[in-house]
Amino acid sequence: MGKVTKIMLGLNILAGIAGIVFGMGVKGNLKAANEAKDDAVAKAKLATGGTSELQSTNQKLSSDLQLAQGQLASATNELAVAKTALSSVEGDQGKLASDLQKASIDLSQLQSQLTVAQNMAKKASKLEQEIGGFRQIGTLTELQALKTKADKAARDAAAKKKKKNSGPKKTATPSGGEVGAIISFDPKFGFYVINRGADHGIKVAQEFNVLRGGRLVGKIKIKQTQPTVSIADAVKAFTRQQLQPGDKVVKSD
Fold first, then answer.
1. What is d(CA 232, CA 243) in angstroms, rounded to the nearest whole number?
2. Predicted pLDDT at 136
């Protein structure tokens, strides 16, 4: 067999072997490709199912978010309404407090006027009794004559006393400068009402001592004046106890 023939024969054998090997490799690759395709299809189906579930969940979350936003808007509106109502209530409360304070002052003034009226009624009753007694004594002319005699006797007695006490006179002790008295206390607003006002010369910011049984129990400062009554606050530095109706109000030294 020639050398060339041997070479050709060897190449044919190699080609055959390569064909066999190539054929076997292609079949193996095709099988692997088919398995890979099947696996990819399965994974795609699984991914599609997951995507559908995610879309459903996303839609539900969007719906819940819209509902929550609606509830938040409603709660915000209700809060605004509540704030408006609260402001109105606070305004009404302030007006009620002011009206209550004015009513308390008016009541104190009426109590003062009632006290004055009661004193006047007592004086009128006493005057009627005195007039009745005078009528029993005699006529107006007789009463005038008696009064003239009484005045003369009083002058004579005063002259005798003056002559008797012609020595050096003693200086009179002042009465203490009594101004008036406390007639009420308002526990809600913490102020006192005294039975003297602007008509009696009382002025705002004046300070007076308060006596009970002749003993100093506190001090007050005028806060507001009315014609016949005044409103005062206790000066805490000098007042250790609550002042009471009937306590005397006197001028400070």
1. 11
2. 44
